[in-house]
Design goal:
By secondary structure, the chain is mainly alpha-helical. Helix content is about 60%, strand content about 0%.
């Protein structure tokens, strides 16, 4: 996106793995707001990544993050 190009993050591996559209994320967020949910993680991939942190060894998480952010 133009935002990532401007920020210099458009070549990051994480972004090349596919992105949800801003409209779909906004719809999910608005539905969660209407349902009075405090937290909404948009998308299956994001949900898996966010929840896996609780049981994945920190050293492995750091390696994965380093890989995805380069």
């Amino acid at each position: 996106s133009a935002f990532h190009s401007r920020a210099g993050t458009d070549k990051v591996k994480l972004l090349r793995m596919g992105q949800m559209s801003a409209a779909s994320v906004a719809r999910m967020g608005y539905r969660a707001f209407e349902a009075n949910r405090r937290v909404k993680i948009a998308g299956l991939k994001n949900t898996i990544m966010a929840r896996s942190v609780a049981f994945t060894p920190r050293a492995l998480i750091l390696r994965i993050v380093r890989f995805l952010q380069t």
